[in-house]
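Postdoc handover notes: sequence design on the structure in folder B. Input tokens:
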């Protein structure tokens, strides 16, 4: 077992023990207010049924997350204090999440263990923070103020809980991704926190409003406040499908050089995957990584202007002026496709001196050269020799930080070559 896998297994084990313990206690003592538990369970289950898979979104089931958060924050129902506690919250969310995942599992698109781990640990954290405030069924107004009549203090408490829960979920997500991929934790956490400004804010706001509305008017508030988020979830599924189609279109266009015989099969895909890994190692944000990936896929499109293909598509061996001409032609093609102008800039400037390039162009240039050199080298030491050739050319052609980041990525990636730094 590697050192990176141990924290991941511990997180999964903690979530499993929490879920199993809370479920066993709830089954032993029975459900308090089964109608309320059923209503929130159905809400979480419907959210899981409508989740999207494979889209890369950090919150694939926003309605389920909002419903789970609302149940964790709930202290009253139509003015009557609730009786459920932390174990019942976790048990209901676990059972509903598993039930909502059944159709996805049947279609082979079941949720990852990381998704359920995050859901249980985050909801458990929110419930542990919120439920003791109600003193086991006695609302706050029995202890100096009603949460709905003397609002400022209670509103501050709810906002604080939302902030803490958001931070907890972001840290969990970044830690799980770091353990699974070994990508740097800092950039992962930054991307997670930045993503919370989008759908994450809607989830937190909807969960808080749901709990407050149910406390005042009862369970009728659930469908009223969940419908907008459900429609948003369905809209995001369409958006994710469009974005997937967009990326597939770019990948198909990039294969034009392979089909025409200008570059080896799979070259653009390999450069794109490795460039994205290097960009993540260097701390690029998610939007920057997307631009980098698209530029890497299309970095050789300018070769279609050549009358005679370059042997093996190895443009790194061409004179600087010829490389620059091909890059400019490639950028012009990219601009005509309607792709983001930032992608065209990276393609156009990949042949410039590296000190004048944007960081994405520096990455594409170094990774493309490594791919070409590693293909030329024979034997098990080929990738290592290619990396050493890159290092020797750092003072002139390649940024040293990019090359060292590439070395670290290759060292971690057992699917490539056992390169050592």
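Designed sequence:
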């Amino acid at each position: 077992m590697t050192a990176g896998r141990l924290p991941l297994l511990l997180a999964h084990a903690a979530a499993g023990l929490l879920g199993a313990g809370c479920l066993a206690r709830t089954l032993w003592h029975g459900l308090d207010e089964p109608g309320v538990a059923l209503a929130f369970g159905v809400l979480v289950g419907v959210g899981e049924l409508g989740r999207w898979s494979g889209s890369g979104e950090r919150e694939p089931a926003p309605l389920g997350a909002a419903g789970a958060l609302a149940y964790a924050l709930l202290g009253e129902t139509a003015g009557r204090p609730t009786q459920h506690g932390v174990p019942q919250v976790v048990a209901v969310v676990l059972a509903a999440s598993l039930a909502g995942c059944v159709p996805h599992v049947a279609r082979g698109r079941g949720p990852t263990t990381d998704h359920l781990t995050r859901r249980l640990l985050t909801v458990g954290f929110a419930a542990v923070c919120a439920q003791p405030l109600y003193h086991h069924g006695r609302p706050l107004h029995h202890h100096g103020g009603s949460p709905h009549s003397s609002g400022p203090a209670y509103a501050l408490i709810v906002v604080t809980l939302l902030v803490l829960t958001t931070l907890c979920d972001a840290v969990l997500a970044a830690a799980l991704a770091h353990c699974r991929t070994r990508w740097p934790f800092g950039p992962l956490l930054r991307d997670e926190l930045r993503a919370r400004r989008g759908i994450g804010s809607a989830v937190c706001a909807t969960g808080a409003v749901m709990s407050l509305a149910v406390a005042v008017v009862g369970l009728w508030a659930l469908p009223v406040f969940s419908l907008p988020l459900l429609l948003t979830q369905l809209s995001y599924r369409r958006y994710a499908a469009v974005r997937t189609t967009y990326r597939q279109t770019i990948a198909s266009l990039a294969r034009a050089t392979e089909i025409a015989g200008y570059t080896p099969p799979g070259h653009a895909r390999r450069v794109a995957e490795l460039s994205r890994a290097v960009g993540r190692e260097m701390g690029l944000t998610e939007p920057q990584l997307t631009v980098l990936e698209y530029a890497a896929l299309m970095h050789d499109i300018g070769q279609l202007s050549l009358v005679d293909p370059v042997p093996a598509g190895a443009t790194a061996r061409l004179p600087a002026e010829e490389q620059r001409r091909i890059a400019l032609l490639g950028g012009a093609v990219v601009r005509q496709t309607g792709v983001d102008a930032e992608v065209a800039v990276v393609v156009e400037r990949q042949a410039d001196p590296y000190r004048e390039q944007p960081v994405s162009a520096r990455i594409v240039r170094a990774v493309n050269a490594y791919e070409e050199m590693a293909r030329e080298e024979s034997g098990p030491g080929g990738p290592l020799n290619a990396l050493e050739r890159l290092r020797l050319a750092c003072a002139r052609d390649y940024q040293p930080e990019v090359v060292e980041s590439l070395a670290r990525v290759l060292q971690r990636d057992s699917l490539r070559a056992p390169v050592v730094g």
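Context for whoever picks this up: The beta strands are 76-77, 80-81. Don't rerun without checking with the PI first.
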